[in-house]
Amino acid sequence: MTITRRDLLTCGAVAASTAALPWRARAQTAPIQLVFSHHVPTAHLIHGVAEKFAEKVKQGTNGQVTIEIRPASQLFNLRTSAEALQLGTLDLCWTDLGTLGNWQPRFGFVALPFLFDSYDHVKKVLYGPIGQQVGKDVRDSLGVEILSLGASGFRVFLSKKPIQTADNVRGLRLRVPEIPIWVEMAKALGANPTPIPAGEIYTALQTGVIDAIEAPADFILSSKNYEVATHITRTHHIFTEVSMMASARKMASLPPNVQKVIRDAAIEAVQKEMWEANLRAQESAWNDLVKRINANPSPDIASFRAKMGPVINGFIAKAGPKGKALVEAVQAAGKA
Question: Which site from 43, 69, 134, 149 is most exposed, i.e. has the minimal number of CB atoms within 10 Å?
Answer without folding.
Answer: 43
